[in-house]
Target: Transposase
Amino acid sequence: MQGRSDDQRELLDAESVAGHLLKSDSVFRFLATHRGELFPEEMFADLFPSRRGRPSVLTEVMASVITLQALHGLSDNETVDAVTFDLRWKAACGLPITAPAFHSTTLTYWRRRLAASARPNRIFEAVKSVVAATAVLAGKTRRALDSTVLDDAVATQDTVTQLIAAIRRVRREVPAAAAVIEQHCTAHDYDNPGKPAIAWNDKDARDLLIDALVGDAHRLLGHLPEQDLGPRAAEAVALLALVAGQDVEPVEGSDGTDGHWRIAQKVAPDRVISTVDPDARHAHKTVHRRQDGFKAHLAIEPDTGIITDCTLTKAGGSDNHEAVIGLALLDDEPSPVRVLGDSAYGTGATRAALAEAKHTAIIKPIPLRAPIPGGFTTDDFTIDFEARTVTCPANHTLPIPPSGGVGFKTRCRSCPLASQCTTAVTGRKLTLSEYEPLQRAARSQARDPNGKPSTANTGPWSNGPSPGLPATTAKSATAASPATTTGCITAAPRSTYVDSSPWA
Model:
């Protein structure tokens, strides 16, 4: 049942004893004074439908703790220590000086309850409403976009483990699936969650097992009776269909219809890495660093460090790209802003969308790579967008076709500049998109008179961590969400973007 607050303060109430020591403009002071208004009991009533059982920790206390935890980037154990020993935390939460803290698992319990509710982001929304009501961002016209990968706690599963787990899940969730498995699936004893006992150092044995397990999955899917499935059963069937196809391909010489399979020689672009958490994905923040988990996307006001909006997505997939999600984070801005970001946000479509919304893009251009080191890039070609012509450094002019693909072909064979332009037998080719004018203008603005990126005011471009964003490990997508509370103030921001004077 939901715990109820008591207006009667205790003798050693931390706010009464030491509240005068709190800075007037601090979050601690604000919560000490307004937590009851910010997080009223009725705001969390749906989390406790039953009136039976032991009273919960007070909702205003837990909401304040979750907010402060996100603000300071603390682990659950560190948060409990802060509630126990830090008078500022006690005053902010309305606790007596001598009050012990709750167990660290209480935070996990609350996150799970919030995640499973109809309004999982209610604490975000409450803090964001305060930011809007206090006009703390009035006159602040810059928003920095960034993202970071949150590690998932589940282990990455190989194909064999995923197939066995998915078949067992269908057996557990789908009516009549157990009978189908008993009759048609013979590759493994599906009462056993582990891997079969085979010679794992024998490639032929591994190939036979993969072939048999994929065959079992297909036979199970093919023999399930037609029936209306609930959400859990439908999800189990869909997951089995996915894992049965994402890592395999027909064996060599097969036309794909004879039912023989092998491990594919490539990785699926949106591969499910675990049946325990099907939303977890591989992610590459750099070429040399791979992580498994989710991606947190943030919009930050860089002067105050206030996170104005945030969301959590799968780590992979075009729909979850920084440029796509970053635009959505600006939807609630009441007026145009200057948008700061690294080259991940520098796509032509993003620049066009920002311009349409009247925002100003201060975004690092996507770097150009010359076919020959030190040679000519696309920017060394003169483009007349009105006449739809392109002229190469050797002064050869060609029309731009509707497709945007321009090939100089035989003109490159006798060209004295060919060694600086291309090594292709068919000559230099350009592919110009509809956003080429925007991209070219952005690259031009980013260069100072010496042809180097401008670093006036805030230093060079960097792909460092988000300003003030703590490193966080996500137990799951929903569990990780409170680590990026909307409207919270991060540590003193360390800008990773350029606000060069030509763009201001």
Q: What stands out?
A: Residues 378-437 form one domain. The first strand starts at residue 142 and ends at 152. Residues 451-504 have pLDDT under 50 and may be disordered.
